Amino acid sequence: MPAESIFPRLEPLLPKVQKPIQYVGGELNSTVKEWDSADVRWALMYPDAYEVGLPNQGVAILYEILNELPATLAERTYAVWPDLEALMRAEGVPQFTVDAHRPVRAFDVFGVSFSTELGYTNMLTALDLAGIPLVAAERGDDDPIVLAGGHAAFNPEPIADFLDAAVLGDGEQIAIAITEVVREWKAEGRPGGRDELLMRLAESGGVYVPKFYDVDYHPDGRIKRVAPNRPDVPWRVHKHTVMDLDEWPYPKKPLVPLAETVHERFSVEIFRGCTRGCRFCQAGMITRPVRERSITTIGAMVEHGVKESGFNEVGLLSLSSADHSEIGDLAKGLADRYEGTNTSLSLPSTRVDAFNIDLANEFSRNGRRSGLTFAPEGGSERMRKVINKMVTEEDLIRTVTAAYSQGWRQVKLYFMCGLPTETDEDVLGIADLAKKVIKAGREATGSRDIRCTVSIGGFVPKPHTPFQWAGQADHETVDRRLKALRDALRGDREYARAVGFRYHDGKPSIVEGLLSRGDRRVGAVIRAVWEDGGRFDGWSEHFSYERWMSAAERAGVDVDWYTTREREENEVLPWDHLDAGLDREWLWQDWQEAVSGGEVEDCRWTPCYDCGVCPTMGTEIQIGPTGRKLLPLTVV
Ligand code: SF4
C-alpha cells in the first residue's frame, strides 16, 4: 500500500481551520522512520483532539517502545476537529498521522486507546476518513487490524462490530508480541489473509477477537451465553500485567507538544494499580495488583526526561500517588534536587490526610501554594462506607485545617452524585461538609480569604467493579439533587462566596452508562449517533443527549434497561468472558457488603482478602520500601 505523505494536500486546508498547528507534527522527541525500513507499522490513535491526546501516557509509551523495535515503526493520529473533517471530506484527504502525514489505512495495525467510552464516535470518524470500512466484517486484506486498548477495552462489546481485536491491561509487552505475530505472518506471505492473522492473535490467548465469539440472548434480552465459535480460541481472554515497572522506564523521551495541551508536563508513573478498594473505581479494580516503580528508577526517569524535554513541571502519576511506600523520601529527594531551579513538581493529591500536606509542601518549594485537591467522593459518612472510601469527617477537617494554616488558600473537594443507595440527605451532606471546611479554615488562619471548590461528577457503574450490578441513578434524580445542593450552598450568605460549585448535568452520565455496560446491540446506537453527526461526545459543546436518545429509539435499544436496571447475581454480563482477574464471587460479595455497610482494607498492609487477581494472573503485590535513596545530587 502506498504511503506517501498527504501533507501537500493537507497544507492548503490548514489556514482555513482552527488551531492548524495541531496537525503539523514535528514535535521534539517525535520519530519519523523511513517507511521501507519497517516491516510492521502501527498507527496509534488517541480518539480525541490533539490537545487532549498528546499528553496521554498510554499512547506515548507504546509509541516509544514500538519505535525502539527494529524494523517497526509507529506514528500517531488524533481526532480532527469538525472544521478540518469537512474540508478533508470535500478534498478527499484521508485520516493521517501527524508524524509523517501518512494515510492511516496504509499501516498494518490501527491501535486506538480508549480512556473513556465517549471517544467511540471519534473512532468511527477516523475509520471513515481513513477509508477503512466501519464494520470489521467488511474489511479486506489491505485494511489494517483495528485494535482497541485502554480502560474502556475491558468491555469493548458495544464497539465489537467495528473492532478486529482488543487488548486488556498493560500494553508494553503485548504490543511487542502482536508486532512479532504480524511480522511472522507477513514474512510467510500473509497465509490465510486477515482471518488467519486474527486467528493467530486470538489463539495466543492475549488478544480478544470479537468475531470469534458468538452471543446468544434470552427472549427477555439478557445474555444467555458468550461462546467461542472456533475450537482453538480461549473461552476467556485475560488481561496483561507488567510485573517489573523498572524494566519499562517509559516515556524516556517525552513528546513536547507544539500546540497548547491539557497537561504540559513530564509525567512519571510511580506505581501502577491500586488496592484501596474504592468500589466505584474501575481503574483501581482492573489494574490490580499494586506494582511500584523503585525510587531510584523514578529519580533517573525524572532527571533524564527533564533533560530530554525541557519541561519545567514534573508530575508523579498513579491512582493514589501518596501511597507509594517511599513517597516521603522521593518527595524530599526530588525537592532537594530541584530546589532553586525552574523545575516544579506536582502530585495529584487525592488522599485525605495530613501526610499529604507535608508532601504538597515539599513539592511547592519552587512554586506558589495555590490549590490542593482531595476526593472524599461521598457527602456523608454512610455514603463513604458504601463506596469503601474510608475518610471520616474528622480526617477531612483536620487535613484541610493543616492545609489552610500552612498557607494554602484554596482547597478543591471532589464528590460524586448518583452513587448506589444515595439519598437526598447524602448529597446535601456535601454542603454541610463544605461549610465546615470553610469554618475550620477561617478559624485556623484568622482570615476570610480562603476558598473551597466543590466539584461533582455523575457516578457511572462500571464493568469489573462491585457496582457492575447496580442500577444507575436516572438523570432527573441526579439533576434534582444537584440543584438542591446548589441552593443549599448559594442560600447561605455566610459561606456562599467562599464555596465554588462545579458540576455537570446528569445526562452525559447516562450515555456513558449505556456505553460502559452495553453489549453488542449498543453498536447500532453508536453508529446511528455518528451518522447523525455525533463527534467529540466528551465535550459538552458537542455532546447531544437528544441525539443519543433518538438514535437509541431508532435502533430499538432501551436505554433504561442498560443503565438504571439493577442486575441479578447470575445474569451473564457482556464482559464476563473478559478476565480482569477479579473473582466474580468476590465482586458480588463486595457489592453485598457495600449495601450492608461492610468495609474492605487495603491488601498492601493487611492480609490478602482473595479478590482473585494475584492467583489468576500469577502476580503479586510489589511494594517497597527498598531502602534505596535517590542518586546523589547532579546539576540539572
Ligand atoms: S489477590 Fe489478594 S493480594 Fe492480590 S490484589 Fe487481590 S486481595 Fe490483594
How does this structure look, described?
This protein has 636 residues and is an alpha/beta fold. The protein has helices spanning 7-10, 50-53, 57-68, 82-91, 120-130, 172-187, 193-203, 282-286, 295-309, 327-338, 354-363, 381-386, 393-405, 424-445, 475-490, 507-516, 523-531, 545-554, 559-563, 584-596, 613-617, and strands spanning 40-46, 72-78, 109-113, 145-149, 165-166, 213-217, 223-228, 237-238, 266-269, 271-272, 291-292, 313-317, 344-346, 371-377, 410-417, 451-458, 499-503, 578-579. The strands form 6 sheets. It has a 5-stranded parallel sheet with strand order 2-1-3-4-5. It has a 4-stranded parallel sheet with strand order 14-15-16-17, covered by helices on one side. A hairpin with a 5-residue loop joins strand 6 and strand 7. Helix 17 (523-531) packs across helix 18. It is globular. The mean pLDDT is 94. Iron/sulfur cluster (SF4) binds at residues 275, 288-289, 603, 608-614, 621.
Summary, kept brief:
The protein is of the alpha/beta class and 636 residues long. It has helices at 7-10, 50-53, 57-68, 82-91, 120-130, 172-187, 193-203, 282-286, 295-309, 327-338, 354-363, 381-386, 393-405, 424-445, 475-490, 507-516, 523-531, 545-554, 559-563, 584-596, 613-617, and strands at residues 40-46, 72-78, 109-113, 145-149, 165-166, 213-217, 223-228, 237-238, 266-269, 271-272, 291-292, 313-317, 344-346, 371-377, 410-417, 451-458, 499-503, 578-579. The protein is 34% helix and 13% strand.
Ligands, ions, cofactors: iron/sulfur cluster
Q: What can be said about the biggest beta sheet? A: 5 strands, parallel
User: Which stretches of 5+ consecutive residues score pLDDT under 50?
Assistant: none
Biggest sheet strand line-up: 2-1-3-4-5
N-C termini distance? 46 Å
Whole-number average pLDDT? 94
Shape: globular
**Helix proportion:** 25-40%
Count of DSSP H/I helices: 21
Number of strands: 18
Q: Round the Cα radius of gyration to an integer and report it.
A: 25 Å
Helix and strand composition category: alpha/beta
Estimated share of beta-strand residues:
5-15%
InterPro entries: CHP03960_rSAM (IPR023862), Elp3/MiaA/NifB-like_rSAM (IPR006638), Radical_SAM_N2 (IPR045784), rSAM (IPR007197), rSAM_horseshoe (IPR023404), rSAM_sf (IPR058240)
Domain Radical SAM core: 260-502
Organism: Nonomuraea corallina
Protein name: TIGR03960 family B12-binding radical SAM protein
